[in-house]
Amino acid sequence: MLKTASQSPGSLGPPQLLTSLAGLLREWLPKQRWFAGKGRPVTDLAVLATTELHPGCLHLLIRTRHAGQPDDCYQLILGVREHLPLHLQHAFIGRPDAGPLAGLTVYDALLDPWSATLLLERLRVPGAMGPLRFERDTQVVVPDGLKPRLLDGEQSNTSLVYGDSFILKLFRRVQYGINPDLEVPRALARGGCARVPAAVAWFWTTEPCKMTLGVLQPFLREATDGWTLALQSLAAGEDFSDESYELGRATAEVHLALTRSFETEPLDPHGGRRLAAAMTDRLETAARQVADLVPYVSRLKAAYGALATRGLSRPAQRIHGDLHLGQVLRAGKRWFVIDFEGEPARPLAERRHAQAPVRDVAGMLRSFDYAAYTRRPWGAQWVKRCRDAYCAGYAAESPWDPRAEAELLRAYETDRAVYEVLYEARHRPDWLPVPMAAIARLAEGS
Fold first, then answer.
1. Are 96 and 126 in contact (CB under 8 A)?
2. Intra-chain end-to-end CA distance of the chain, in Å
3. Cα separation of 93 and 24, whole Å?
4. Is-contact 211 177, C-beta < 8 A?
5. How far apart are CA 189 and CA 261, in angstroms?
6. What CA–CA distance (Å, rounded) separates 204 from 209?
7. 115-218 CATH
8. SS3 per residue for 284-347
């Protein structure tokens, strides 16, 4: 039964709520897969905005602070009850012992089917709720009564599927501005690109500043992600070249659609030098945090040096920004590209910048390598065939062939592998050998 008291949680101000929630959140947040501050103690918490979505369900924006690190802002949807029923025990966060919520049960309301259903109702009816703004494409019908389920294997965000018809992505770590995972699908849909599911509904906040909070899109119920398909191919000992070729074609189609929907940047004669300097800085920063990288630093810099000398041959454009096998779906024989958020660890403004499309190509090539390393012995020939087929498919739809700019491609692959090393060291140490093996190969090639 929901809390029934003279003062509802929604009527409490941020300082009052923090009195009850600070201790619980300091312990609960670092355990969440989407929390970016792992390994760094939370030194300060603040409630930036609060809205009661319905009685006993709070939408919160929480600022976290870590020593020596920029502040982060997280979106939480919390439930408050006197007692938690058995079917919600897994959603339990804690029972405050101080403040206005003392003695009550606080839980993750996104795990509550009732709260998840009411959230979809908010998206079905455009309008405002406190600082929250709900909008949708009025040409798309979203039925009521769709049963929600939480997707497993969440990473930097949380996704709810409704009736196997729609999927709602809730951004957990939010930043000022429009999220590219809303901006890009809307723009591509207007341009007629059918490779990317269009945005159906979305919501954002005006406090403490304008930030995108969630996007509802069609759910491709018959689709399988590229990572699963690649692992199935490896397990069966089958070739994945045809699928890789078609995936390359799909990537090129999306890149071309992006050039029609967004402005490209003029070719920068000093762009190669600036890019090499940024990649070198990321390498040196990563090496200070992951000792395994240190022996390779000087040789890896050579890949960036060639980039600085030769420069860039194509103008920058909007791209996916974090393309890999987990970001593509295949329904029948057709590939779709999803999740245009970019690398969540990078600032939102940076993720919206125009960049070289070869960065997406390098990300996918690295993903083939990751898939192959899930089995022993490592399938070097399987990876080579996938790489060649993917690049050939890309070249079949694009006016340029990534293989024709081998030094640029190597530089971006190196930069991606460095990013992977830092990510795995922080979040999945058991996977660290995968990018480290690539680092060794790339260093040898340099």
1. no
2. 64
3. 7
4. yes
5. 9
6. 10
7. 3.30.200
8. HHHHHHCHHHHHHHHHHHHHHHHHHHHCCCCCCECCCCCCCHHHEEEECCEEEECCCCCCCCCC
* Token couple for 236: 């069966």
Closest CA to 120 of 97, 99, 105, 136: 136
Closest CA to 385 of 371, 397, 406: 371
CA pair distance 341, 351, nearest whole angstrom: 8
Question: How far is Cα 369 from Cα 156, in angstroms, rounded to an integer?
Answer: 22
Q: Under CATH, to which class is 224-445 assigned?
A: alpha beta
**Pick from 398, 258, 408: nearest CA to 319:** 258
Positive or negative torsion for Cα 441, 350, 219, 197 = negative
- Cis (ω within 30 of 0) for the bond into 85? no
Side chain identity at residue 273, one-letter code: R
Judging by beta carbons within 10 Å of its beta carbon (0-12, 13-18, 19+), is residue 444 exposed, middle or buried? exposed
Q: Which two tokens stand for residue 301?
A: 């810099």
- Measuring CA to CA, which residue among 312, 316, 311, 314 is closest to residue 265? 316
Give which of 128, 206, 119, 203 is closest to 160, Cα–Cα. Answer: 119
Q: Would you call 134 helix, strand, or coil by DSSP?
A: strand
Please tell me the pTM assigned to this model.
0.91
pLDDT string in tens for the chain (446-residue length): 344 444 566 666 777 899 999 999 999 999 998 998 777 788 899 999 999 999 999 999 999 998 778 899 999 999 999 999 999 999 999 999 999 999 999 999 999 999 999 999 999 999 999 999 999 999 999 999 999 999 986 578 999 999 999 999 999 999 999 999 999 999 999 999 999 999 999 999 999 999 999 999 999 999 999 999 999 999 999 999 999 999 999 999 999 999 999 999 988 888 889 999 999 999 999 999 999 999 999 999 988 987 888 778 888 999 999 999 999 999 999 999 999 999 877 889 999 999 999 999 999 999 999 999 988 888 899 999 999 999 999 999 999 999 998 889 999 999 999 999 998 998 889 999 999 999 999 998 76
Structure tokens at 380: 């070097």
Distance separating alpha carbons of residues 194 and 311, to the nearest angstrom: 34
User: Taking Cα atoms as reference points, which of 91, 137, 131 lies closest to residue 115?
Assistant: 91
DSSP 382-426: HHHHHHHHHHHHHHHHSSS-GGGGHHHHHHHHHHHHHHHHHHHHH
The confidence score (pLDDT) of residue 371 equals: 96
Q: Does residue 9 contact residue 58 with C-beta atoms inside 8 Å?
A: yes
